[in-house]
Amino acid sequence: MRTEIKPIRPDRTLLRQAVTDRIKTYIIDNRLKPGDPLPTEAELCEALNASRSSLREAIKTLAALDIVEVRHGSGTFVGRLSLSALVESLTFRGLLSPEDDLRALLDLVEVRQLFEEGMAAQIIERLDGEHLADLEQATAELEQCPPGSAAQVEADRKFHQLLMQPLGNQLISQLTGAFWDVHAIVAPYLGMSSPAEDADTVAAHRAMVEAARGRDADAFAAAVVAHYAPVRRRIAAAGRA
Amino acid sequence: MRTEIKPIRPDRTLLRQAVTDRIKTYIIDNRLKPGDPLPTEAELCEALNASRSSLREAIKTLAALDIVEVRHGSGTFVGRLSLSALVESLTFRGLLSPEDDLRALLDLVEVRQLFEEGMAAQIIERLDGEHLADLEQATAELEQCPPGSAAQVEADRKFHQLLMQPLGNQLISQLTGAFWDVHAIVAPYLGMSSPAEDADTVAAHRAMVEAARGRDADAFAAAVVAHYAPVRRRIAAAGRA
DNA sequence: CAAGATTTGTGCGTATGTATC
DNA sequence: AGATACATACGCACAAATCTT
């Protein structure tokens, strides 16, 4: 067949892995930002000396991490760098074993509480009037929205998101959103609507806002504990059932 | 060309997405655990009515989330469900913009501190003699290992991992490990070895162990703050340079 | 609105490298 | 060492979505 020397790839690594790395470095080296377009598949194939199959498989792994975003018929773009991969990982784990799923949900609630309770002092310290007004509005929305509506769950998410905003820590904000998402996805599967017991939730949110207005970090932390207490109770109740 | 009615796929979703979902539900429905083998590509192709291309791309996205693990020449297995995807996402983001990378690292340090400081009380409460001995050994290893060695950084990781172990919260433990990994990967790129300034680190670890032995949650929290203070200082110094 | 061009999605066949028995 | 099973990689053709003219 081949009369000449076989062009054995000297790489010890998998071609797909090499391609993913080169695409990542391409994005970094060219200072691309989320939404910026990447070269077409054909161009990348030529540039990286890879077949279209290998290139596409590499792109799929990057898409799973939200490092790139592929739009059918349009092109490939730099992704939003969200924590969607974390959400998918945790939701899958939460649904994996029907015995440990309650444990996983409890672990998640503990982490959510850790964030808000542990950052209570700094939240109070950095909160200003505008943020306080936003929190009040989110609470009002939560109360007024029809129970079980999409607007209601969105108001709950916005509230917890707003809590972390004054910290100016993007990682904390994104993790908070990701954990909320996982909770909202997993909880219904276990027979409990996450922002259920609306009265409890609204009261807890109000207590947090009041504590924040009074610049009382201890009261705020206590309100956070009170907010998650009924959630934990419901999980425990589901475990006994 | 086609005399018969076109076999339009009623699905509005992409085939690839449908395949990933069906593989996930396959794992869940069959109660598979990490390490369990999955059907071969050929079998999955037939079972899911998909071509190898689509199936492989679907598997690559699942592999990126550590939901499945592919071993060349051997087969496909259920993944370890680690948070490797989170590590990859955060490391990429940390290296993305040379201006905000210091900010991203600072955000990360803040989260790491939040975990250990926020859980101080519960760590103290649930710690027993055995855990205390493990922590002391990890500290001793950290001190004795040659500076800059792989054993040294591993001792540091083990210490922070052990801290969270008594909580019995797998999510917290895995997140702690993931954040440590990101820190260890990103920090060197910014010109600072993560577990550098060995004296500071060892002293801080010792202070934490002592506080834990004395069941003094406040002292423990203070030691955590003292542990990350020099790290923050170094990041700030790198920002001024 | 229409038609063509561009780009990603899907399918298939074949050859090769790798792990396992 | 050989044989078998399996994943990896390549190339091409066509379908579907999107964009442009």
CATH homologous superfamily of the largest domain in chain A? GntR ligand-binding domain-like
Determine and state the CATH class of the largest domain in chain A. Answer: Mainly Alpha
The total of beta strands of chain A comes to 2
What oligomeric state do these chains adopt?
A: homodimer
Strand proportion of chain A, as a percent range, falls in under 5%
Q: Can you write the helix and strand succession of chain A as a string?
A: HHHEEHHHHHHHH
Poorly predicted regions of chain A: 1-10
- Report strand order across the widest sheet of chain A: 1-2
Number of helices of chain A: 11
Shape of chain A: elongated
Mean pLDDT of chain A: 91
Question: Based on helices, strands and strand pairing, what is the structural class of chain A?
Answer: mainly alpha
CATH topology of the largest domain in chain A: Four Helix Bundle (Hemerythrin (Met), subunit A)
Query: N- to C-terminal separation of chain A?
Result: 69 Å
Q: Main sheet of chain A, how many strands, which sense, barrel? A: 2 strands, antiparallel
Q: What is the second-level CATH architecture of the largest domain in chain A?
A: Up-down Bundle
Number of domains of chain A: 2
Salient structural properties:
homodimer; 241 residues; mainly alpha; Arc Repressor Mutant, subunit A; 2 domains; two-stranded antiparallel sheet; 11 helices; disordered N terminus; DNA-binding; WH_DNA-bd_sf (chains A, B); WH-like_DNA-bd_sf (chains A, B); TF_FadR/GntR_C (chains A, B); transcription (chains A, B)
